[in-house]
Amino acid sequence: MPESATTLLVIAKQPVPGRVKTRLVPPCTHEQAASLAEAALADTLHAVLMVPARRRVLVLEGRPGPWLPAGFDVVAQCAGPLDERLAAAFAAVRGPALLIGMDTPQVTPDLLTVDWQAADAVFGPAADGGFWALGLRVPDPALLRGVPMSTASTGAIQRARLVAAGLRVADLPTLRDVDTAADAVAVARQAPQSRFAARARELAPVLSPGGSATAGSVLGETA
């Protein structure tokens, strides 16, 4: 099955101050946190654009903005807890699908290219115990419903669901979500050419307690 048979799903929130990346406040203001979220979302969407796909879908809470490139269908997130919203995203597509969030701007097109001949499911664990990617060759919303979200065991429980269903699971590398200032600094270093890293460098005096010079060094700023 070619990679182009895959539907790529990005589940995201409109980067509105006070509604995204609230764990970055403090040290950031809500406006600064939202600007980091917007950069992360833009990086994620552009990575998805570089992957052959049957369809690219942004499952969005809120409204599209100038950060949205052409090439995406936009559908509204359903109401309810996150497990229900993820399940609904899979329920709305046909054929193999890979879903990612907006919190890993370091993601690369290679990580989003799936060999469905070798796997029935794809799982990308997050460093905080969650997961940043979930792919299903045959989407089954029941595999997500009831999984407790935003806990240190979310990823382990979700992966166990896949295994218990008898699926061949291909594991992707562990990535770090951007939730805190320390996360932002670490992720910016991993992807120094990204939009996210550029914005993080602008906010270096805020994100790093060591001051602008130290922060610039930490974030990979070059002379």
The helical percent reads 25-40%
Category from helices, strands and their pairing:
alpha/beta
- CATH structural architecture of the largest domain: Alpha-Beta Complex
Strand order of the largest sheet: 3-2-1-4-6-5-7
CATH superfamily of the largest domain: Spore Coat Polysaccharide Biosynthesis Protein SpsA, Chain A
Terminal CA distance: 47 Å
- Percent of residues in beta strands? 15-25%
Mean pLDDT across all amino acids: 93
Structural account:
The protein is α/β, with parallel strands linked by helices and 223 residues long. The protein has 2 domains: 3-171, Spore Coat Polysaccharide Biosynthesis Protein SpsA, Chain A (Alpha-Beta Complex), CATH 3.90.550.10; 181-218, no CATH class. The protein is 31% helix and 16% strand. The chain is built from 7 helices and 7 strands. The protein has helices spanning 30-49, 82-91, 154-164, 181-190, 195-202, 204-207, 212-218; strands at residues 7-13, 55-61, 73-76, 97-100, 121-125, 131-136, 169-171. It has a 7-stranded mixed beta sheet with strand order 3-2-1-4-6-5-7, with helices on both faces. Helix 1 links the parallel strand 1 (7-13) and strand 2 (55-61). Helix 1 (30-49) runs antiparallel to helix 5 and helix 4 (181-190) crosses helix 5 (195-202). The radius of gyration is 17 Å and the shape is globular. The N and C termini lie far apart (47 Å).
